[in-house]
Amino acid sequence: MNIEDQTLELGFNLSTNVIQPAPGDLIVVKVSHLLTVSQREMFTEKLQPAFEPFGCKFLLLEGGADIMLVKKAKPDGC
Predict the structure, then answer these.
(1) Do the beta carbons of residue 39 and residue 72 sit within 8 Å?
(2) 41 secondary structure, DSSP code
(3) Which residues, in sequence order, are CB contacts of 58 under 8 Å at separation 6+?
(4) Do 59 and 65 meet the contact criterion of CB atoms below 8 Å apart?
(5) Distances from the Cα of 39 to the Cαs of 35, 42, 43, 44, 73, in angstroms?
(6) What is the pLDDT along the chain (78 residues), one digit of tens a residue?
(7) Is the model's pTM score more than 0.70?
């Protein structure tokens, strides 16, 4: 199932990339501003159940934060 098939009422405009989550995936949700405690709780209450059927977890980033993975370079340089 495609995550875009899910309808969530969060009170925010959301845009998603077309994603097909697989078990064990981490889905990062990014908002451009800081959230109140109640908004953060609302995101968790709405999103966690939406991602659980896919076997995924989610991470909520706010305030314009970005997340990236930097891997250690291999000895051969690539």
Answers:
(1) no
(2) H
(3) 26, 27, 28, 29, 47, 48, 51
(4) no
(5) 6, 5, 6, 9, 39
(6) 344 444 455 555 555 565 677 888 888 888 888 889 998 888 888 888 888 888 888 888 888 888 777 777 777 655
(7) no
